[in-house]
Amino acid sequence: MYEIYLRSFKDTTGTGLGDLQGIIDKMDYLSDTLGVDAIWITPFYPSPMADFGYDVSDYRDVHPLFGDLATFDRLVARAHEAGLKVIIDFVPNHSSDQHPWFIESRSSRDNPRRDWYVWRDPKPDGSPPNNWLSVFGGSAWEWDERTGQYYLHSFLKEQPDLNWRNPAVRAAMFDNMRFWLDRHVDGVRIDAAQFVMKDPAERDNPPNVTGLPQAHKPMGAYDAQVHLYDKGHADVHQLYRELRAVLNEYEPPRMALGEVHIFDWTELASYYGRDLDELSMPTNFGLLKAPWTAAGIRAVVDGLEAALPAGAWPNYLLGSHDDRRLATRLGEHGSRQAAVLLLTLRGSPTLYYGDELGMREAEIPPDRRQDPWGMTEPTLGRDGCRTPMQWSPDPTAGFTSARAPWLPVGSDHALRNVESQLADPDSHLNLYRRLLRLRRRSPALRIGSYRAVDPVPPECFVFERSSEAERVLVAVNLADAPLSVVVAGCAGTIAVSTKRMHEGKAVEGALQLAPHEAVVVV
Ligand code: NOJ
Question: What are the pLDDT digits (tens) for 499-514?
Fold first, then answer.
């Protein structure tokens, strides 16, 4: 899967913002040049853009800035023609405060839609009903003067939480999902999937006495609490069974990739459902939290593999529109190792646009900042990973004809862009292309089993993927020194290496790895 941050992928109208036609125009890049199997498109719905589309004001249309329903239908048809599946972002936890449902809901206490959102009385002293915090800072409760109650918003105050305990909300939201499934989308990425079910008693969260971040990154003031009661209540499982049943109404059944940030593998595994009847895949952010060492990476993979129920399909990602750029976090060597791991571990990988070029986190001057989170907590701003896709060395990176794209183009675009990297066999992009090609033709890599190989030097992570017909060995040297790894029965050829000059070399018994090298032996 390839995540397309729509606003920044390709602008065809000169607005400085990416659009759906831009994805259509780049379909050959996706399916042939790069060679991915599916695209996940971030929100394109009508929205006041308080959170850049994650505040939806109409779940059944396309924002005119991005195109219209006819363009969307053409996009799906063109993707399917090119052999690509289409996954769309579905945002169930909250709508925009400009959604007609919320406008009605806040109009009076006895409005029929009042209970579609979460309205509560203040405490006797006028303060919010409990201590829950908004992910983006401050209390999760906003006072509404007119009706004299607070409403809940787990994110911005412009993103009121829907009340999923109300059956009418469930029915209406499932119908909204059907609207897109009927337009032939292959799956949904469920935004903030843990948040839809909270503690029905709405107890205060306990303080986070360790002070350590609970997610894969620091979250500022939000880290002051353990988020025990404001998300992930056990009732979420019944809800996802219902949602999965909606996906199963279709032939072939559609899939759900649910955004969760869970680092306890048993809890993560629970989101697949005991009978694999909940989320098709809860997202696995484990490799973003792991120390980038052989032991750190292996602990994530083995931990997850051991916890998964039989038949559950893993997934990995290494970047997203909410995280610092992969190549900035891990550097040149680390991001090449990451490419090999992402495309050879068992399960579905998600590749974030531009990571195939090794795009770096961009510096955003304060007066060009856009992300509301970055406005309140500058160190947490997400603009730096959302800058325009770098197609060419041109001043606007071939992204737009506008003079100023909505976010500045990364300063590394002259070096890291599709055009220049296609011409360089050693580039990041060509490493990804070779890995994707190998994966397409290798049953062991696509569907084979996983087994960690022991004993190996402690700086090395080595694993085997095997199917009936094929055995593939993957070895990653995390050390800054050459290493020799002896693997019983290892014989084959280096099919892909982060050091291209080693590709095609025969291997027998011992594998010689250069510093930082990652190889795939077939
Ligand atoms: C998770 C999304 O990935 C993020 O971009 C968004 O701000 C929040 N959910 C709220 O919808």
Answer: 999 999 999 989 999 9
